[in-house]
Structure formats: structure tokens, C-alpha cells
Amino acid sequence: MSFRIRIPSIWRAKRFLYRLEGYRCSRCGEFHTHSRYVCRRCRSRELTLERLPTRVRLVDYTVVHQATRNNEDNLPFIVGLVETPDGVKILGQITDCEPEDLAPGMELETTFRRIGVDGDANIIVYGYKFRPEIH
Amino acid sequence: MPRHVDSGIVGYGCYIPRYRIKASEIARVWGRDKAELPIKEKAVAAMDEDTITMSAEAARYAIWRAGIEPRQIGAIHIGTESKPYAVKPSGTIVAEILGIPPTTTSADLEFACKAGTEALHIVSSLVGSGRIKYGLAIGADTAQGRPNDALEFTAASGAAALLVGPPSSNNVANIEHSFSFVTDTPDFWRRSYERYPVHTGRFTGEPAYFYHTLSSARNILMENGYSVSDIDYFVFHQPNVKFPLTAAKVLGIPMSKVEPAIVAGEIGNTYAACSLIGLSKVLDIASPGQRILLTSYGSGAGSDSFILSVADGIVERRDKAPRYEQLLRRRVEIDYAIYLKNRDKVRV
Ligand SMILES: [Zn+2]
């Protein structure tokens, strides 16, 4: 994930970063990762809090060799696009595997890891990642 | 202490990171004798793992096995000596990851390798007194040994969590008795601003590990009218493989009752998680009606003991999350250089 680390924005995003909890539009089904008053697709105001399932399917992935700031020691890392059973697509890092272990269509599960460390304040940013299931 | 009839283990979970370094690889680097290694290999956390992430993983498994909603949990206490923050609680972060509400007590506990069972004392008391219905007791560490120190061969990473709730035959196990035994013993310490702990060599055995472990185990048995033959599994803290086996020998415990809990040979000493991971491994195979004696040891020094009776719920609950053997199987061997990088030991 290549967002710049800022304490307030991380703190506001923790519901989704920590628990994959977001806002589902009960009229059209659109899922929002951040708090909203109005559905970005159908403009409905009927948004309810929902936690995404822990099992997802890998759509595709890429290996990143270019470090983001404060993530220089953790190269290369894998970023994947995954899809929940009801079609919500989310982007996230994939951990605990090598790129050659991955194939589009395979099942992954959510886990919880360090995402980075904010340089000056040295605050640790935690959040979800995906990994192959433990059998 | 009187018999407890007021709390039980509703769910349990352990977590082992997938990296391993062989003790012989550490011996190769420092020119040590490979014939005298305390363990075979140890578990090493990945760069994106720490005490908080491993606690969250183990606790998640405990919640899956318990089959309860995280909002029913009213306490989370983590025992560790490797908190990611010197000042900032680990428990609050783990609580929010798991979806435990703010109406919860939380504190990180310290007592070297027995901090995890100290969390069990506190959480089972909160449940027993009726102040909360469910609570999490966690032991987790990313233990560090100074390069080329004897501790470097064994200091490992791992976590274990117990979800404590009201007693029931539907639980994984019920807590029958508890005991604690502590003294001021200078066997191992770390002052503030020091990166690595100091230990006093041979002093760590007789007056430290054995005195407290044996006193605690003997007392909890004697106080409650039990003998070794009443207990089916003995789980001891494992700074290496030899110490728990020696303790068993002194107490006259058959090896078949202590070996099922031995984890140090294949994952090392995971400090505050160690005896609780041993307990998880035993719960993976124990049958309803069997009795387990858990005795931790923490430098400084002290031991906590618990007698647990395995309940009927174990049978259907144990398969709801990964078992010890499954976590052990995702093994990836690393060399000393990668180990140094993973554990942040490369400093310029
Ligand atoms: Zn909508």
C-alpha cells in the first residue's frame, strides 16, 4: 500500500485497516471502506456497518521492488487484488508466501500485520494483509 | 488455594511464525560445539510481525474455538517482555483488531516468561468474581538474545491465547485449582535502555527454574490431595528441552505424560507464550475427563500452576482453528543473515 503515513488519517481508517469493516449500501450493495453519509454509487443514505469475510479469492497480484517511504527494509513485497464471495474487490499486501506460491483464483485468508513505521513519530502502523490458508 | 468452580477455558489458540533458524546455524556462525545444542531450531517472527500481531492471531483462534462474539469479551491482558512500544499498551490495539468493545479492562503484564500465566490468574479471577463473562489471557513474545550469547540459541517468537469464561461441561477445560510461588531471585534481567537481557549462567538452573517450578507443582498437587498419577499431562515452561524433562524426573512423572507438551525442541523458548503453547499442543490431543497440570516459570523469579480438567467441549471445538501441528508445518528455514535482518539486529 503506497499511502503516506499520517497519524490522523491512519487513526480514522483503523476500522477498515484493523477489521476490514466498512459501510455497505443497503439499496445497491456498494461497499465503502471509509465512513460516508451517502452511497457513492446510488446516493442512498442507508449505509450499514459490515465486516468483510476472512476468506477471499485472489484476482491478481504484482511484486513490488520499489520501496515506499519507511518500508525500505521489507523488499520485495507482494500486492494483490482480492475479491470477497459477494464481489467486493480490495487491494492489500500478501504475506507469508513467495510470489511463486500464488496463482489467480486461489483462496487467501485475512491476517493482521505491521504495514509500516512512521519515520519521525516512529508510530507503528498495523493493518490487514492476506496470506495462503493454513492447512 | 480453594478449589475453583467458577471459570473455565472456552477457547484456546497458539501462533507460531513460519520462519525457523537451526541452532546448528547459530553455532556455525559463532564457532560453538554443535553436539551440545539446547534445541533443534527456533521460530523467528517475520519483519511484519511482532507481539501485537501474533497476539491477535492466537486470540482470533481462541475466539473461533469459543464460538462467541468479540463484543462479549470484557478483559484482555497480554503478558510479554517484548512489547512493540515501551509506552503504549498492546492490549488496546489487539482489542480493536478483534472487535472487542471499549468497555474492557486491559493491561500489559510483565514477569519474564511467566507473564502469560499471570494474565490467566487475573482474567480467571475477573470471570470467577462475576465482573465479566469472558476475558482473554495472552502470552506473546519476540524474544531477543544478544548475538553469541547462550540465550540466542533459544530465544524465539510465538503467542498463545486462552479465552476464559464461565464453567461448563461444554468448555474446552475447566480450571480446578491455581497456585503461585514467587521470590526475589536475580537469575535474569534487563535494565531500561539496554537492548538485550543479562543472565547469570549456571545460576539459572537450580535456585531459579527448578526451585520455583518444583515448589509450585508440588504444592498445587499436595494442597489439593493429588498425586502424579491423578494427572494425565504435565506442561512445564521450557527454556530448553532438558529442564522440563529433568523437572519431570525429579517429580517422578513418567516421560509419556510430559513429552506431549514439549515444544522447545522445534520452536525454541517463546518466553511468555512458551508454557501456553505447550498447553495448546496438549489440548489438541487431550480427551474429556483428563487432567492437566500447567506450571510456568518466569525469571526474577516465580512459577504459576493451574490444574485443568478437560471438558466435553474439547471434541467439537479443537478443529475450529489451526492446531499446533498445522502451524508447525508451514516451516521456512532461514540462515543467520536473514535472521539478523528479520529481528532488527542489524544496526549501524
Ligand atoms: Zn448504493
Topology at a glance:
The complex is a heterodimer of chains A (135) and B (348).
Chain A: H1 7-12, H2 14-19, E1 21-25, E2 31-32, E3 47-51, E4 55-64, E5 77-83, E6 89-94, E7 107-117, E8 124-132
Antiparallel strand pairs in A: 1-2, 1-3, 4-5, 4-7, 5-6, 7-8
Chain B: E1 8-15, E2 19-22, H1 23-30, E3 41-44, H2 51-66, E4 73-79, H3 90-98, E5 105-109, H4 115-128, E6 134-142, E7 157-165, E8 173-182, E9 188-189, E10 198-199, H5 205-223, E11 233-236, H6 242-251, H7 264-267, H8 274-283, E12 291-295, E13 302-310, H9 314-317, H10 324-329, E14 332-333, H11 336-342
Parallel strand pairs in B: 2-14, 4-5, 4-6, 11-12
Antiparallel strand pairs in B: 1-7, 1-8, 2-3, 6-7, 8-13, 9-10, 12-13
Helix pairs in contact in B: 2-3, 5-6
Please summarize what this structure is:
The complex is a heterodimer of chains A (135) and B (348). Chain A has 135 residues and is mostly beta strands.
Keywords:
heterodimer, A: 135 residues, mainly beta, five-stranded antiparallel sheet, three-stranded antiparallel sheet, 9% helix, 41% strand, B: 348 residues, alpha/beta, Peroxisomal Thiolase, Chain A, domain 1, nine-stranded mixed sheet, three-stranded mixed sheet, 14 strands
Written overview of the protein:
The complex is a heterodimer of chains A (135) and B (348). Chain A has two helices and eight strands. Chain A has 135 residues and is mainly beta. Chain A has a five-stranded antiparallel β-sheet with strand order 6-5-4-7-8. A three-stranded antiparallel β-sheet of chain A has the order 2-1-3. Chain A starts with 6 loop residues before the first helix and ends with a strand. The mean pLDDT of chain A is 90. The longest helix of chain B is centred in the middle third of the chain and has 19 residues, at 205-223. In chain B, helix 3 (90-98) links the parallel strand 4 (73-79) and strand 5. The relative contact order of chain B is 0.20. Chain B is 31% helix and 23% strand. Chain B is an alpha/beta fold and 348 residues long. The chains are: A mainly beta (135), B alpha/beta (348). The A-B interface holds A 14, 18-19, 21, 51, 73-74, 95-96, 111-115, 124, 126, 129, 134-135 and B 18, 46-50, 52-53, 56-57, 84-85, 93, 96-99, 322, 326-327, 329-330, 341. The structure holds zinc ion. Zinc ion binds at residues 25, 27-28, 30, 39, 41-42, 44 of chain A. Zinc ion binds next to loops of chain A.
